[in-house]
Design a protein that fits this description.
By secondary structure, this protein is α+β, with helices and mostly antiparallel strands. The chain is 56% helix and 12% strand. Strands 1, 2, 3, 4, 6 and 7 form a six-stranded antiparallel β-sheet that branches. The protein starts with a helix and ends in a 7-residue tail after the last helix.
């Protein structure tokens, strides 16, 4: 991981500079006779390639931001999303690996210089490389196949420096897709990434998930074998990566994956007291026995009492069309400040379409539906966007909100039909209260 601040800043600065340079080049190509559509497609494809190369090479907060952004691509207009989809999907699964000598140094520091005695075999070539760490396949001393997750040296300073720098370049992503505001996402990532640097804390979260879903027929979580501040050893989990299901899976597999992803989202706070807060496709697998395999527990929301019952009541009131009741709960929770002049009908006009997945026994999530919602509330000239600006998102609910939107984004990438309402009724406290 490049650690020198000047070097990382220069690489991140190349993103907006590259956009500006390609725009100038595009003008020249239009003058030379190529159509605007041809030039724009070429410019977007080149920008996507640069985006992956820069964010992937730097890893750290730069790549983590790319991974977080990738789950929202379903909300972008197709003309903006298509050139970036492949590049952002790469960020979910891979990045340039650290050298083998560095791997051995990290293992020496975390498990002692005799760490090889703990393994029957250790593959120094990484099986996967992500934002702040990479995974190696190995065989534990008792014969179990294991995944060894190691943190990149210097990940902490790089994370915070990258996210601060990317905040300065937030305008760039609005240029890529008008209406895309990444500043709240970056701010929330900065609040959470420090927890992700503590692999001991991640191991505790994974143990809680594994215990909650032990022998579950639908959800599989690998057990932790050993852990250290910058290393986690877990049982190996084979399966089809969710990104492959999105690109190549048949409809039955897509529906199964989407239903299980929704089940995890709704049930985890009640069963584990935690919410998996990093719902990008790289963290999920479809196993041969039909279960959803879940990995990477660095980002979680701690909800020891489950989802707040008031949130379930609010959702049910809105779904049932009780405008005044929903507005009263919104005011009570702080979503509408006391001095804001807004009618119940305006609020329901804003929220109503978003709640469509909860109105019927099943709902088919599509990119088209996601884009419609994004366009409806994202156009700054629209009445619904004006209403959205009057609403407030209390800090206690921001992470739940972000993870819910991210999970829905993945469901839309899958194009899955899922029993969303039944899952809410079963697992969301307050949703079925009279």
């Amino acid at each position: 991981m490049p650690q020198r601040r000047g070097s990382r800043t220069a690489k991140l600065a190349s993103l907006p500079l590259g956009v500006a340079g390609r725009a100038t080049l595009g003008l020249g190509r239009r003058i030379s006779g190529r159509s605007q559509e041809e030039v724009q497609a070429d410019l977007q494809a080149r920008t996507a390639e640069q985006l992956f190369n820069v964010l992937g090479e730097l890893k750290g907060g730069a790549m983590k931001f790319g991974q977080a952004l990738s789950v929202f691509e379903a909300a972008l207009p197709e003309e903006h999303a298509a050139p970036y989809r492949a590049a952002l999907t790469k960020l979910q699964e891979a990045a340039p690996p650290m050298p083998a000598a560095t791997v051995r140094t990290v293992l020496d520091e975390q498990f002692g210089t005799s760490w090889r005695s703990r393994f029957q075999d250790f593959d120094e070539t990484p099986a996967a490389a992500a934002s702040i760490g990479q995974v190696h396949r190995a065989v534990w001393s008792d014969g179990r196949e294991v995944a060894v997750k190691l943190q990149y040296p210097g990940a902490g300073p790089a994370l915070m420096a990258d996210l601060s720098q990317l905040t300065r370049f937030a305008w760039l992503f609005g240029r890529i897709s008008p209406g895309l505001d990444v500043k709240p996402l970056l701010a929330e990532l900065k609040d959470r990434v420090l927890e992700e640097l503590d692999y001991t804390l991640e191991a505790e979260s994974q143990r809680a998930f594994a215990a909650a879903y032990a022998d579950d027929p639908d959800i599989a979580v690998p057990r932790v074998v050993a852990s250290a501040p910058k290393a986690v050893v877990s049982e190996w989990m084979d399966g089809t990566q969710l990104s492959a299901v999105i690109s190549d899976g048949d409809q039955e597999l897509r529906d199964r994956a989407g239903s299980l992803l929704a089940l995890l989202h709704y049930s985890a706070p009640s069963r584990a007291g935690l919410l998996h807060a990093d719902p990008h496709p790289g963290n999920f697998r479809m196993l041969a026995d039909g279960r959803l395999g879940v990995i990477d527990f660095g980002a979680v929301a701690r909800l020891p009492d489950g989802y707040p019952p008031a949130l379930g009541r609010l959702t049910r009131l809105a779904v049932d069309g009780d405008e005044e009741g929903a507005l009263a709960v919104l005011r009570g929770l702080g979503f509408v400040r006391p001095d804001v002049d807004i009618t119940a009908h305006q609020v329901m006009d804003y929220l109503g379409p978003i709640l469509e997945p909860l109105r019927e026994p099943t709902f088919t999530f599509t990119r088209e539906w996601m884009r419609e919602q994004a366009a409806r509330i994202g156009d700054p000239r629209s009445e619904q966007a004006r209403v959205g600006r009057l609403l407030n998102l209390p800090p206690d609910y921001f992470l739940i909100h972000r993870v819910t939107l991210g999970s829905i984004g993945v469901l839309c990438q899958l194009g899955a039909t899922a029993p969303y309402r039944a899952l809410a009724e079963q697992w969301s406290p307050g949703f079925t209260d009279d």
